[in-house]
Amino acid sequence: MKKTRLVVCCVLAAALLAPGLGYSAAFSIFDQGAKAVAMGNAFVAQADDPTAVYYNPAGLTQLEGTQIAAGVTAIWPKAEFQASTKDAALGTYYGQVTKTNDDEFFIPNFYLTNKYNEKVAVGLGVYSNFGLSTDWPDNWPGQYCSGATYTRIKTYAINPVIAYQPWKFVSISAGFIANYMDAQMENNILMPGGVFGPDGHMKVEGDDWASGWNAGIMFYIQDEFRLGASYRSQLCHDLTGDITVTGNNLINMKSGGTLDINLPSVLQIGASWSKAPFTVEFDYQWTKWSNYNMLQLNVDSTGAVTEIDKNWDDAHAFRLGFAYNVVKNLDLRAGLAYEPEFVPNETLDLIVPNGDRWTWSCGFGGQYGKWVADFAYAYLYEDERTFDNEAGDVYNAATGLKVGRLVGEVQEVSAHILCLTVTRKF
C-alpha cells in the first residue's frame, strides 16, 4: 500500500506542475486591456489608459484626473492530439485524433488611477496575469498522463502603484503585487487487466498567496517618439491543498500536500512613434521561464518529497502594433506577435506543448463624452510539437511498473480571444 501511494504521489507531482494547454505563453496571460490587445500587446511605450498599471505604470502621470476602467477577456482554447503509441496496455490508439472539449474562461480586470498633482500619480489594478483552462475527454489516449483530463488554474493580482515625473521628459514608477493562485487538476490512474479492479481517478486542489513588485520607466524623447520599459518580479508560490484518489479501494487516498512553483519575472521594452493620424509601436518581451527549472512536491500522508526537473528556457516575444485615428474619437487598431518555442523536447508535456506561437489581433476604440470603450479580437496559433519523452510514461498504480509510453503529436493548438474595456473619466 505504501508503494502504491508513492506511485500515486509521483503522478500527483507531475499533475501539479503541468500547467498549460490553455492559452498564452505557457500559462501567462497578457490580455489586461482591450486597447493593448488590439495592438498585439505592443503598449509599454504608450501606456496611456488606466491599464498602464499593468503594462507600464510610469504612464500614469500622463492621465488626467481620476479614471476608472473595467473589462473582461474571454478565451476559447482548443487543441488536438494524434496518438502514435503502439503499447497494447494503453489501448489501440494508433492514429487516433482527439480534440479538447469545448471550453471557455472569462478573465475580469479593474483599474483605478488618480493624478495627485503635476508630478505624482497613483493607481490600483486587479487582474489575472497567469491562468489556463484545459478539458480533454475522460477516455482519451492521454487520460493517464499527469493532469491531462482537466486542468484549471486561476490567479488574481492586486497591484497598487505610484508614478513620479521628476522632469518633463521622464517618468518612473513602482508597485507592490499580491498574487493569489488557485489550481485544480485531474487525471485517471491506470489499473490494467482488471486484476486490480477499475481505474482510479485523481483530483488535486491547492491555493496560495505570493508577493512581488513591478516597476516602469518612460522617456518622452519628442512629441512623436517615446521609449518605455517595465519589469514584473518573480512570484514564488507554495501551493497547499488536497490530493484525492477515488474509484479503486486499492489506491483510494486523501492527503494534504504542498508544491513550490516559481512564476517568472517579465521584462518589456518598447518604442512608440505617433504622428496624426498614425501610431506604431514595437515591443520586445523577455520572460524568465528558466525560473521554472524544478518543482518540489511534499506529500503529508507519506512524507515523500518529489523533485521534477522542467529546465525551461527563457521566452522571447516580439510585438508590433498599429493604430489609425479615423475621426476625432474613433481609432482602428491591429497587431502581430511572435514567440518561438521555449520548452525543451526532453521536458515537453501534453499540457504545455509550446510550439512557435503567432498572434494576430485587431480592434477599435471610441470616446463619447467622459466614456471610452475599447474592443479587441485576437487569434492565437501554435505550431505542431512531437510528444515523446518521460512525461508520457504510464505506470500500473498498484505495482509501480511501467506499462507503456504515450507518443504522438500535439496539433491545431489555437485560441480565440475577445476583450472589452470600458473607462470612465472624472
From TrEMBL:
This is Long-chain fatty acid transport protein. Keywords: Cell outer membrane, Membrane, Signal, Transmembrane, Transmembrane beta strand. Its main location: membrane. Transmembrane segments: none annotated. The keyword Membrane applies. The keyword RNA-binding does not apply. Pfam families: Toluene_X. GO terms for cellular component: cell outer membrane. Residues 1-24 form the signal peptide. It is found in: Cell outer membrane. Belongs to the OmpP1/FadL family. GO terms for molecular function: long-chain fatty acid transporting porin activity. InterPro entries: OMPP1/FadL/TodX. PANTHER family: OUTER MEMBRANE PROTEIN NMB0088-RELATED. It is a multi-pass membrane protein.
